[in-house]
## 1
Amino acid sequence: MNMKNGTIPIICREVVVIGGGPAGLAAAIAAREAGCGDVLLIERDRILGGILNQCIHDGFGLHTFGEALSGPEYADRYISKFRDLQIEAMEETIVLSLSADRLIEVSTRGTFQRIEAGAVILAMGCRERTRGAISIPGSRPSGVYTAGAAQNFMNLENIMVGKKACILGSGDIGLIMARRMTLEGATVEAVFEILPYSSGLPRNIQQCLNDYGIPLHLNTTVTGIVGAGRLEGIRVAQVGQDRAPIPETERFVPCDTLLLSVGLIPENELTREAGVEMDPVTGGAVVDDSFMTNVPGIFACGNVLHVHDLVDWVSMEAGEAGKFAACYVQNGSCALPCLIPVKPGSGVRYTLPRKVSGERDFVISLRVAAPWRDRSIVVRSGGREVARQRHMRLHPAEMIRIDLRKESVAGCPSLEVVVE
């Protein structure tokens, strides 16, 4: 402990993880297992587990544990291990600021602390886009929720949000809530998606819509909200190739509830405050193959880095970040010179990491820009083919991972990932 910044003491810690969801838990566990004896996790909620606590459906853990678990069950596996390793957690704690020299200011139940970290792992997750973010015109009645807020009300608070619902956006949370509301006795009139394809996983289209006879209308959006005290209905219209509504197709759909499943935004206010370079496509930090940002000692993982479709990949990625953060504080650095840039090419929306050392094995995570069938993901360096993966089906909703050995990129000045 020292006394910088006036009379408020600064507490020195080795690894500090911000966020107690699946990414934060996995990162903290990995840092401890990598030999770091001083790991602190900071969580703003009163319990650990993050968004998993309200995800009572199954399908989690198929890759990590080889079985289908509910969200709380999956979280409990990591929380139990976290407790067994006796890692310290500060719950109900808000991080007020983060500086480039890893000074963290926090508030816990009216108290204020300053913490100086040897390494910081950003694992704050993401938030939903709201009605204001997509500028739906109309009145402001009750009955309009983000899909995640409705999920929280129903699964954690036992509050039914409506009886006759429509859903805008076919993201996974919206699809899962279509099924959830149906099972609770509500009528789900339809799901409307502005894109020409669903933005959710194909398995959720089948299990949450098709199995319950809920229609999905593509190339369609909400053009207005109608109602005074309570939502009375919505106006919807088909859209053209420019995604602008076609006026003559507009119609009114009666409903008392509208759920918005229109995308997720990484929670990166602290990241930007620390001066971390951001990727405009993912909305997350730019990292190398150790998950370290351009600010030495600050790492990022999970949905705060890029939005995932499977929690298993979040945990695996966060485990790597935790291991490298422990290495950073133990050895003064985990970094190797990252001289090989990685960039998305034709048909690829983004790649992560953005640069690699070529001195260790690594994974490239990516999303394609549009749906395709019977195509290959190819990693190239100039005219040299480094790796190729054949896929019967490619979809923007599904993240793709390509494992690369360091030997395969030896001598490569750069890497480009394309769809062929």
Note: Residues 337-420 form a domain with the Immunoglobulin-like fold (CATH 2.60.40).
## 2
Amino acid sequence: MTGITGSTRLYAVLGDPVTQVQAPAMLNPIFAGLGLDAVLVPVHVEAADLAGVVTGLQRIGNLDGLLVTVPHKIEACAFADMLSPAVRAAGSTNAMRREPDGRWTAENFDGTGFVRGMAAAGHELAGRRVTLVGAGGAGGAIAAAVLDAGAARLQVCDPDEEKLSDLLDRLAARGRGRVAVGPAPELERADVAVNATPLGLRADDPLPFDPASLPAGAVVADIIMQPRETPLLRAATAAGRPVHHGAHMLSHQLDLYREFFRLGEFE
């Protein structure tokens, strides 16, 4: 694509904030590489305006899809006609597609992207003990995928007891006694600790957990993509713990997006 035309197909990524989103920088080159007249743009929408914005966007005839980021991944499910198994397990969506009949399908690739990114970096999760901080939209998706990847134990912590209870119910069939929940992270015996909260998007955010409390060699993963070196990852590096950056989770979703949105193959 050489520029916006009257035939351009539209995609939007919804969030609050959106200054940190990396999807436009990654997906727009894919559109260009595929020779598609399409563009993905960031849309800053506050929670109170989500319903009006999503239903309005869905009425745009040349809008084919939505990506969803913090803090809207759970609430956005209400605007889909069909929910994938991954969405039902996670309780959240990060991608929505208009079908030929006008209905909308919700999918969630956060968990698969996270697990694939970890594996590509040499951090296999099978047989590992994982502590996950954050039971929100991304956290739920990662929790389900970590269990599917064969983690020996998963502890999910969040101050919101209702979120934890709902997540535990959704994971019951997958967990088979491997899941524990609580308000505070159990770090002393974890092999992998993951931040799936927004803490770190702002410079004055507190750390989601203290990486120095982890055993030597335990991997610290953060799903925040901007800044790349979050305060948590800087603290983990200072404590001598290996780190895993948030960009990996998105970069390993790109092929999944391409298939989901039926974008075709590179020329």
Note: The chain has two domains: 9-109+250-260, 111-249.
## 3
Amino acid sequence: MRIRAAKRDELPLLCELERAAGAPFAAIGMPEISEDEPPAPEELAHYLDGGVALVALEEDGGAPVGYLLAEPVDGALHIEQVSVHPGHARQGIGRALIEHLAATTDAPALTLTTFADVPWNAPYYARCGFRPLADAEVTPGLREIRRKEAEHGLDRWPRLCMRREPPRG
């Protein structure tokens, strides 16, 4: 697998990848998530211009099988999305994208918001070194992200903010 910056002409592929990655939510009683339309390529372009957009490619250098989007929020680098095509799940692609981001940023921490009880969400991110934030630790920018998520209906299921600091050496 190879990880590199996403290219503008790949953004429609990322939308399709997001649709496929959302499908497993239907099997755990969250069909609204699986049916939710991903952001349009024009919206994803924001991450090419003012954030981070990474893709993971198959060994042969083919189409993206996973991607990560991040942008600065309150001094940290906030991971907005990590998606892996279900046909390539459980192969370490999501973790590789996160580790690549961690190794290539000088941000003091990575943050994200996620579903608390979905096995491939909060429990997975905890295994990747993220910890849940107490309410007092949630920054204004993360509160705004959570407000927008609630407006979108995501608070129908428990959600939380998580943070990962670099290892202390």
Note: The chain has a mean pLDDT of 91.
## 4
Amino acid sequence: MRTLPLALIALACLAPALPAAAQSAGDWTVALGAHHVNPKSDNGSLAGGTLPLSIGGSTRPTIAVEYFVRDRVGIELLAATPFRHDLDIAGLGQIGSTKHLPPTLSLQYHFMPQARVVPFIGAGLNYTTFFEEETRGALAGAKLALGDSWGLALHAGIDIKAGPGKLRLDARWMDIESDVRLDGVKLGAARIDPLVYGAAYVISF
């Protein structure tokens, strides 16, 4: 279920707190990990509502860099290797695929900086660019194009002290909507709005 990662994060925030390092103004962190992009179940319909669209999930390596502008307050940039998604239309089956990159800039607040388990929340802006669209099946040979998207991004997670760094478990929601064109003709919009969840190892310097 899409709500499970957020529920796990909320539960972990109740874990007993033990002393650990704080995030202070001027600090940098780098988080190396992997995330799964899970589009919502209803991705809209094309061609005037006659072609229900379904977009598959994808998992890829990610990197996030954060700079603390104040104690507990950081600015984070998320980047990743390209995610790849299969595209299906009800009644036609798989009709193609696309790749995307979702760089996301967030302002974040880290609670309980002296704790072993440190929850955090954030909000910011996502830019998603789509490329290398391919068609197959019923649409083989046609030219498919998905437009780029700007939208709100929300972030929540926990950092757990682990050796010299921290284990991060997090989840994001991103507002992603893309215009879909086939041979230059707009068919409608793909409403992706994914939940993005994963794990990373965080180092500070």
Note: The helical segments are 4-12.
